[in-house]
Design a protein that fits this description.
The chain has 160 residues and is of the alpha+beta class. It contains 4 helices and 9 strands. It has one domain: Thiol Ester Dehydrase, Chain A, CATH 3.10.129. Strands 1, 2, 3, 4, 5, 6 and 7 form a 7-stranded antiparallel beta sheet that branches. The chain has a two-stranded antiparallel ribbon with strand order 8-9. Strand 8 and strand 9 form a beta hairpin. It is globular, with a radius of gyration of 16 Å. The mean pLDDT is 90.
C-alpha cells in the first residue's frame, strides 16, 4: 500500500493491543470501527491524527482555548469528504505502515484532504511538535515512548 500524507486511513486493532497508552482514543464506539485518521508520512514513521464527527462536543472546548490562549491549534473543525469533522491534533500518535488496516473510501475513492486544509493541519502539527521540544507538551498520548517503540520495531524488522 502506498501511504501518502493527507489521505485518511484506518488502523488495525493490533496496534492498540500492543501500545498500552491511556492517551490514545478508545478502540470502538457504539459498534463502529476506530476513528478515521489523517496521516502524515515522516520517513518510516507515520503520524496519525484522529478525526471525530462530534463537532458540537468540541466547539465549546475550542472556544475556551481561544478565550484563554487567543488561539487553538490542538483541535480544528473543517469539512472533510463533505462532512464537518473535528481534527484532534492533541491525540496524534506515531505508528508504522504495517499497522494500517485500510485507506478510508467514500464513493469508491480514497479520501484525500484538500491541500489548503492539509497544509493547515501540517503547520499546526509542526507547531505542536516544536512546543514539545521546548518542554510544552500538548499531546495526550506519550508520543516519545510510542515513537521509540515503533523505531525499535523497525530495527528488529531489519535484523530478521
Amino acid at each position: 500500500m502506498k501511504v501518502q500524507t493527507g489521505y485518511l486511513y484506518h488502523i488495525k486493532d493490533e496496534f492498540f493491543d500492543k501500545i498500552n497508552d491511556k492517551g490514545l482514543m478508545i478502540n470502538h464506539e457504539k459498534g463502529h470501527a476506530r476513528p478515521t485518521y489523517f496521516t502524515i508520512k515522516d520517513k518510516n514513521i507515520l503520524w496519525f491524527i484522529p478525526l471525530s464527527s462530534k463537532v458540537e462536543k468540541y466547539k465549546p472546548i475550542i472556544e475556551q482555548k481561544i478565550k484563554k490562549y487567543g488561539v487553538c491549534k490542538t483541535i480544528m473543525i473543517s469539512e472533510i469528504a463533505n462532512q464537518e469533522s473535528v481534527i484532534l491534533l492533541q491525540n496524534a500518535f506515531p505508528t508504522l505502515e504495517k499497522y494500517i488496516d485500510h485507506v478510508h473510501i467514500v464513493n469508491g475513492k480514497p479520501v484525500k484532504v484538500i491541500n489548503s486544509l492539509k497544509n493547515e493541519i501540517l503547520d499546526n502539527f509542526k507547531y505542536l511538535l516544536a512546543l514539545k521540544t521546548e518542554g510544552i507538551n500538548l499531546f495526550f498520548p506519550d508520543i516519545d515512548k510510542i515513537k521509540e517503540q515503533m523505531l525499535e520495531e523497525l530495527k528488529q524488522g531489519c535484523k530478521k
